[in-house]
Structure formats: structure tokens, C-alpha cells
Design a protein that fits this description.
It is a single chain. By secondary structure, the protein is of the alpha+beta class. It has one domain. It has 2 helices and 5 strands. The protein has a 5-stranded antiparallel sheet, covered by helices on one side. β1 and β2 form a beta hairpin. The protein is globular, with a radius of gyration of 12 Å.
């Protein structure tokens, strides 16, 4: 699963697998926490994440929604996905 961004100790990844299950989402990791975030609402759809880091991921997601959706489309087509700028 390729890493598409890293910031403030948070790692963002997206599966590179045609047919990955819906809804469109990405995975975030922070220390022992991991969660899947929806591309539609930026809410956690699976897992747990600390409140502060969740807000950082959601803010980053809102800034990069077009890039995230483009990466999802590429990944579902079996094509390489692109890195996305971190939150700064």
C-alpha cells in the first residue's frame, strides 16, 4: 500500500488494488492508531484515531480532495498513484 503523504507523524496510504472495496477512502496511521477515512465526508469509516490527529487529517483531506479522488480513480484502474503534498 503506497504512502501518498506524511505530516506531523501521520502517514496517509491508499491501496493500489483494482476492485478495492467502496466507499472511496484512504488509510491513516499514527503511532498505534489506524483508521480509514471516507473521501465523501472525511469521517472515519473504520478504526480509531486521536481527536487532534483526526482533525489534521480532515483538514488535509479538504485541501486535497481533488487529488485524493484522482488517486482513487487511478488505484481502481490498477495505475500508479501520485504523492500529495503534506499539511504544513
Amino acid at each position: 500500500m503506497p504512502t501518498i503523504s506524511m505530516f506531523y507523524g501521520i502517514i496517509i496510504r491508499m491501496y493500489f488494488a483494482p476492485g478495492e472495496h467502496n466507499p472511496p477512502h484512504f488509510h491513516a496511521y499514527y503511532n498505534e492508531y489506524k483508521a480509514s477515512f471516507s473521501l465523501d465526508s472525511f469521517d472515519i469509516i473504520d478504526g480509531e484515531f486521536p481527536r487532534k490527529q483526526k482533525r489534521l487529517v480532515q483538514a488535509w483531506s479538504e485541501l486535497h480532495i481533488d487529488e485524493l479522488k484522482a488517486d482513487w480513480t487511478l488505484a481502481m484502474s490498477g495505475e500508479p498513484i501520485f504523492k500529495i503534498e503534506p499539511l504544513s
